[in-house]
Design goal:
This protein has helices spanning 6-10, 14-26, 94-100, 153-164, 171-191, 193-198, 223-231, 260-263, 291-303, 341-348, 384-392, 397-404; strands spanning 52-61, 63-69, 71-75, 80-83, 87-93, 112-118, 122-125, 128-131, 133-139, 144-152, 206-207, 235-238, 249-250, 284-289, 316-318, 327-332, 335-340, 358-363, 368-374, 382-383, 409-412. The protein is globular, with a radius of gyration of 24 Å. A hairpin with a 2-residue loop joins strand 7 (122-125) and strand 8 (128-131). Among the domains are: 1-32 and 63-142, no CATH class; 284-374, no CATH class. By secondary structure, it is an alpha+beta fold. Bound molecules: zinc ion.
Length: 414
């Protein structure tokens, strides 16, 4: 076992790190493959995919291991490239690295430390096998390392389909999901949304989590998901101005979908409320929320500035809410306020509030709020259960997408 390769970086003089660091930010190693500006001028080519996506697959790890056959390892600070013949396991000790560089201001932002790939195209990180390349990036907040998997977008889509949908579902549903997931990913790549959020180059485009999209690893891709990805190669949804928009999807809407601004803060063009008959009667849920938890919820709403901070709450009453409304009306000390349903879900979590599609009643005596809901997930964009039911009835993926995203257009990007 090779160990502690990051100590190699630690020993490099600060001046060298300084020079190389500026080189890294002006011409990042990852940039070469990611020349998106030229896409518009490229001729369509069956095998050509200009998009590589960088997925964060590990965060703040004190140590990690990368293994594979014929690994090539690049230490960026020293430009040290080394090839290992045969099977190799390399251990990174990130705590040592952080400890030795604690007083180095440069490492207060993420730093691309090492990249590893194998001639087989497959590489393992902590015993999970991935396609493409593995990057090790310093994580200044935790004094550990983040791990980023860079791979062709369509390979990513193929492994994601098994996780975000069921690979046994009809091919037209998987194709619709492939286009939606690709649009979401391409939007993340082009908008540099993650980096912008951090205020610096984040070295990844999205996270492998429910916050973004859940992708799998090598073993999650099946022949069917690969086919769904290939048959929709390069296809994304765009708004009327031609811009790729983030296309959201969820497990089941419970009868109708929601627009982004009904759940989050900002509107996104191209979204409508869509009736979804296929899952209207399915996936009902309900629950009670007692006084104590409601009080804590109100305090959280105040802390987040969703309700005025200066009110000292002496009493509260919720008015009954219907399924059609996006809000629940509330009286605090006999003054009326409005609470977004999505804030209930954000605070109480998916297990208690499974979707944003619910109605509620409030018992004034017991001060208990009772909720009856339908569906699973945020409810914005494509309903996966609805998409499956449509595909079962021989509806094509283009028709499914047109149904859930009536304001968006399908285009082939590459
Ligand atoms: Zn639905």
């Amino acid at each position: 076992m090779e160990s502690d390769y990051l100590q190699e970086v630690s020993s490099i003089k600060t001046s060298l790190v300084l020079t190389l660091f500026s080189l890294l930010i002006t011409s990042p190693t990852l940039g070469a493959k990611r020349d998106f500006k030229s896409i518009a001028n490229e001729q369509p080519n069956a095998s050509y995919n200009p998009f590589h996506i960088r997925v964060k697959v590990g965060a703040g790890l004190p140590e990690l291991q990368v293994a594979g056959m014929d690994i090539q390892r690049t230490i960026h600070a020293s430009k040290n490239i080394k090839k290992f013949n045969g099977r190799k396991r390399i251990k990174f000790n990130c705590q040592n690295f952080a400890r030795n560089n604690r007083n180095n201001d440069l490492l207060k932002t993420p730093y691309l430390l090492a990249s590893l790939n194998s001639s087989t195209g497959l590489i393992s990180f902590n015993d999970h096998k991935y396609h493409g390349e593995i990057h090790v990036v310093s994580n200044p907040k935790t004094e550990g390392c983040d791990v980023v998997n860079e791979l062709p977008l369509d390979t990513y889509i193929s492994s994601l389909l098994s996780r975000e949908m069921n690979s046994a579902w009809p091919i037209e549903a998987l194709k619709a999901q492939a286009v939606a997931a690709r649009s979401y990913a391409v939007h993340k790549i082009l908008s540099k949304q993650v980096s912008r959020g951090y205020g610096h180059e984040a070295y990844y485009d999205l996270e492998n989590s429910e916050k973004h999209q859940v992708s799998g690893n090598f073993f999650d891709a099946t022949a069917k998901t690969a086919k769904a990805s290939l048959l929709t190669k390069g296809e994304v949804l765009v708004a009327t101005d031609g811009k790729v928009v983030p296309t959201f999807f969820h497990a089941s809407c419970g009868g109708h979908t929601l627009r982004p601004e009904q759940v989050w803060e900002n509107p996104i063009s191209g979204y409508n409320n869509v009736i979804c008959d296929s899952c209207a009667e399915k996936s009902a849920w309900d629950g009670d929320i007692d006084t104590e938890r409601l009080q804590k919820f109100i305090a959280w709403m105040q802390k987040k500035n969703f309700l005025p901070k200066d009110i000292i709450v002496k009493n509260f009453t919720f008015l009954p809410s219907s399924e059609k409304s996006n809000n629940v009306r509330l009286y605090l000390n006999d003054k009326p306020y409005i609470v977004k349903k999505s804030h209930f879900r954000r605070y109480f979590g998916r297990k208690i509030i499974s979707s944003n599609n619910f109605k509620s009643t409030f018992n004034k005596k017991t001060k208990i709020l009772t909720v009856h809901g339908k569906g699973l997930g945020h409810g914005v964009g494509m309903c996966q259960v609805g998409a499956k039911r449509m595909a079962d009835k021989k509806v094509t993926y283009k028709e499914i997408l047109a149904h859930y995203f009536p304001g968006l257009k399908l285009v082939k990007l590459y």
